[in-house]
Amino acid sequence: MLSNDKLPTKIPIDRESVILKHGGIGIKMNFDCDIVEELQRVGSELKTWRKDRLVYITKKEFYDFIFELDICIIEMYSILDYLALELTEIFNLTKVKYFTDLERAVGLNVGIKQEVIDFMRQDWFKFFHKMRIRVVHRLPINLLGLVHDDVWEFPFLPDEPLKSKSPSKNKLEPLKESKKWLEGVFSFVDEVCFGLGKELF
Predict the structure, then answer these.
(1) Which residue among 77, 85, 106, 142 is buried most deeply as judged by most CB within 10 Å?
(2) pTM of whole model > 0.85?
(3) What's the pLDDT at 3?
(4) Residue 104: CB atoms within 10 Å
């Protein structure tokens, strides 16, 4: 598996090439690029201001941002689930409904299975997976931020997504993390499909 500092995918991507290479999954990948771009646009509109000791935020833009972040997480994870369904058909797997089921799938190519296991052990994926669980269960995403004088630092993701009250000591910015997740997912799909091509042809 490629380390995060060597991920080949860049945004914007060559959309036609992605669709030609990955078909239905490529269409979903392109769609997720649109969502990340929209997340960036909405994030740039977030504003805060201070009156006396109170800090105010542009509420509509903030809720728009959270809404786009929810969609981003769900759709990005659906790329992995869609890939799992394709692998299920190719290898005639049983009891595989979701991406995480591939780790225990009987009959899956050994190399691809190891790719899945290595991928799921990465710290960023563990965090992303917990965020996806949070969104699926319709728990609100807690975004914390810091205000220094009149400067508002971008909202941070919780350190532990599954806890209702979690600190943000790591200060993970949603937009930066979304791009990292997208590049990680794209790289994984590329590697699995490359391995699959060698296996089948």
Answers:
(1) 77
(2) no
(3) 38
(4) 11
